[in-house]
Amino acid sequence: MKKYQVMLLLLSIILTASTVFSGCQANSRTDADVRDSMNETASVSETTESEHSRSDSSSASSQQSERKKNNSNVSAQEKSGTLSAPESSENSDSSKPQESQDVLQSSAEISSDTQSSAKPSHTAENSHFEISYQVSDHSDTELSVVSSVSEISVSEPSEVPSAPEISETEPSEAPSVSETSETEPSDEPVIPSEVSEEPTLSPIVDPYRYYTSEQVYQDMAQLCDRYESILTMEQIGTTVQNKPIYCMKLGKGSKKGCVVAGIHAREHITISFTMRCIEEYADSYMKDVSYGAYSVRNLLNEYTLYLIPMCNPDGTDIANLAGQPLVNVSQFDPDNYKLNANGVNLNRNFPYNWESQYANTPYHAGDEKYPGDHAASEKETQAIMKLCEENDFLWLLDMHIIGNGIFWRDQLNGVIPNDELFAQSIGRAGGYQVFGVSSDITTYSGGLENWFRKAYGRPALCIEMLPYSQAYYTDTYRGYNTYFETAINWQQSRYTYLEAMTCIG
Ligand SMILES: [Zn+2]
Question: Could you tell me the distance, in angstroms and rounded to a whole number, from the CA of residue 400 to the centre of ligand 1?
């Protein structure tokens, strides 16, 4: 009995233990399954997420493509007015290539049209074409990319929902679509920024601030960037202290006129005046709007102005308290400094009656009337002469400040063809009095305009922009810039260089 009972007990223990063990095994398998299934679920959801993102991006890309295509269609329609509405899907197969070709062709036409018309003009009307140009320009590239991915999206711009279908049915092409979308964000922001730049252009030149050489170089470069199709700059020489002397060429015409400003260091306002004229003329040209009674575009299509806004940068910087002359100047007063760094009055350094007048000059370097060691001794003088020798200038204007009038003929040169007509016209247009014939040879020997008349037999004027007496007379010559518009009668003097182009040639 006991043995039987013990056997039974043992048997029941074995059975129970076996049941418990197998239960544990089952439980552990379940846990593992759950973990596996969790992993599977996780990987599924990752896949799902990545597919979503792909499909989202392809959808977004398709929508962007659609927007762009719509834009290109709009611009194409605006231009040609010949594009028909997309046809039904059955017919679209045969019409697709033709239609997409049409779109591309129309875009291309607009691009080439607007490239030629948009460049010379930034008018309100034309800025519309600029916008069209930018859009169609981008959509050209994009249409060709998209059409390689799917012809459907090209021919059915209005059916946005069709795009996701493409990515589902053609998963192998999905990466290509997302590649398209990768290129798009870089294209996308360019359009609004380039368009919005147009109306917010602010002037580069600030005429109320006198120029240092560094600032004028910077503004010149910026003006050339902004008006690149009509304005360039070229270094024509180097100063005694190795600063560049630049000439700005404004216009597209074969006739040429020359303007020289700032030959006397302290006459800052002639530099600001010339720089502002360059900017306003260039702007009027691009907009093709009249400037007073002048059509700048017509004038600058016939003429090219060669303007040297700061022909004496060393002297200008000395007068700006930002430089030092290379010679000892007696009673040195930088505010009133008129010379170059060698202490030479450049407007007495040109080879015009120089020997006769100045061979035994009592003046010394640093004196206001010092004409130099010999004729054309100065690098600044040589740079201007070289420019004149290399170009067939019809006239020359030499800009100064004190006197509010025009010197136009000297007794030694006598009559130069058209000199009086030239002086009278500019006097009327720019608001200057016209002086009598210069008779004091001690004042005009070695003068730039006098040399030009003799060398080329063509009119050249010395224009003095400021009246002798001013109610707002300032402590320094730099101070005139504070009263820029009133000091030089800007509302009238602004036409000076334009009028010069109308009366000679
Ligand atoms: Zn002067």
Answer: 4
Q: What's the rounded Cα separation, in Å, for the pair 354 and 385? A: 15
CA of 447 to the centre of ligand 1 (A): 11
Ligand 1 midpoint to CA 151 (Å): 71
| CATH 3.40.630.10 residue window(s) in the chain | 213-503
Q: What is the pTM of this model?
A: 0.63
Length of the chain: 505
* Distance from Cα 265 to the centre of ligand 1, integer Å: 8
What is the 261 CA–ligand 1 centroid distance (Å)?
9
- 213-503 architecture in CATH? 3-Layer(aba) Sandwich (3.40)
> DSSP string covering 7-60, please?
HHHHHHHHHHHHHHHHHHHHHHHHHHHHHHHHHHHHHHHHHHHHHHHHHHHHHH
Query: 272 alpha carbon to ligand 1 midpoint, in Å?
Result: 15
- Please tell me the chain's helix, strand, coil percentages from 3-state DSSP, rounded to the nearest 5: 60, 10, 30
Mean pLDDT by 10 residues, the chain (505 residues): 52 47 36 32 30 32 34 33 30 34 33 32 30 28 29 34 35 36 43 50 95 98 98 98 98 98 97 98 97 97 98 97 94 95 98 96 96 98 98 98 94 97 97 96 96 98 84 77 92 97 87
> What is the Å distance from ligand 1's center to 468 Cα?
13
**Torsion (CA) 449, 451, 455, 459 in degrees, nearest 10:** 20
302 to 178, 279, 295: CA distances (angstroms): 52, 18, 11
